[in-house]
Amino acid sequence: MALMKTLKQLHDIEGKRILLRVDYNLPISEGKIEDETRIIESLDTVRYLLDHRARLIMCTHLGRPEGRPDPTLRLDPIIKRFLVLMDERGIETAVRKANEVVGQEVDQLVEATKPGEILFLENVRFDAREEQNDPQFSAELAKLAESYVDDAFGAIHRAHASTVGVANWLPSY
Question: Are 21 and 167 within 8 A, CB to CB?
Fold first, then answer.
């Protein structure tokens, strides 16, 4: 039986593209986040990867958009709060957001992400292939990175492309 590798076993991080799956599926009411615990709990992982100069590509889902873009479920309010919480903890870096999950725009933004910077992908559930654990979608996500880190404890039980599918393509921690 293979044991899950931990983040501390991920070596030679500097300059490497790391796909970090987080669970920022947070309760939002009238544009205000009601519970930010999941962001707070992920910040040690984010800090570790940034301190080791990873090129961090972050992905999460929000709500149930049924496999298509839903303007009310875009990640903008989540990222805005993420930035505030990072700032409160003295974590400084450039953070960009892609308007898509995969594709040419995302490829260009990944390429432009420097060591110690973050790129957020748009809500992974905007692509119907996410919840289907589609192997092609998993491969498209995997090609963005060199390693995969799963910090999405609240979503790990789901057999989706960005949780278990990607782990079939990349060294996973």
Answer: no
